[in-house]
């Protein structure tokens, strides 16, 4: 216990800085993933002939090791935050894209036709019918993606992007378990907190009457 207190007294400020860097990198990548994957998923429901090809291509990118992706971006984007966010962004896209495409595609066609009968435009149907009904599944994809990215962001330390991975890799280089724990424990806590936060958001955006159905599927 005394060793932990001493460690925090010596490295507390740096730990806070690395935690903020980790949150910034992870959440920025997730935000970019949402801004790209949700509209793309909706658009693909309109062109199902190429949907599976696009999702398949993104799935292949997901299988590439994260370190290889990070290394790939270095010649183009250098080192630091930008290539780290770009790499994490690629990993964020698949769960959000797949869930958006699947959930919007499975909206009851009768409801879509009813919207057309009421004179709703395509944009109005997306905003008023499709997105509200698909939101629980879309949020589930965002939630999964966010939790994964919190863990993967530790690898950003390899290309000088900072984050809690700096503590982990310093501990490995110095053979100092205190540094490893100081990096690994906050990453775990951040992942758990992220899961809880997005679970609450998922519950909030779920229309009444849909939540019970989703839980019974």
UniProtKB/TrEMBL annotation:
<feature type="transmembrane region" description="Helical">
    <location>
        <begin position="24"/>
        <end position="44"/>
    </location>
</feature>
<dbReference type="InterPro" id="IPR000515">
    <property type="entry name" value="MetI-like"/>
</dbReference>
<comment type="similarity">
    <text>Belongs to the binding-protein-dependent transport system permease family.</text>
</comment>
<dbReference type="InterPro" id="IPR035906">
    <property type="entry name" value="MetI-like_sf"/>
</dbReference>
<feature type="domain" description="ABC transmembrane type-1">
    <location>
        <begin position="19"/>
        <end position="198"/>
    </location>
</feature>
<keyword id="KW-0813">Transport</keyword>
<keyword id="KW-0472">Membrane</keyword>
<feature type="transmembrane region" description="Helical">
    <location>
        <begin position="147"/>
        <end position="172"/>
    </location>
</feature>
<keyword id="KW-0812">Transmembrane</keyword>
<feature type="transmembrane region" description="Helical">
    <location>
        <begin position="80"/>
        <end position="97"/>
    </location>
</feature>
<feature type="transmembrane region" description="Helical">
    <location>
        <begin position="51"/>
        <end position="74"/>
    </location>
</feature>
<protein>
    <submittedName>
        <fullName>ABC transporter permease</fullName>
    </submittedName>
</protein>
<dbReference type="Pfam" id="PF00528">
    <property type="entry name" value="BPD_transp_1"/>
</dbReference>
<dbReference type="InterPro" id="IPR051204">
    <property type="entry name" value="ABC_transp_perm/SBD"/>
</dbReference>
<keyword id="KW-1133">Transmembrane helix</keyword>
<feature type="transmembrane region" description="Helical">
    <location>
        <begin position="178"/>
        <end position="198"/>
    </location>
</feature>
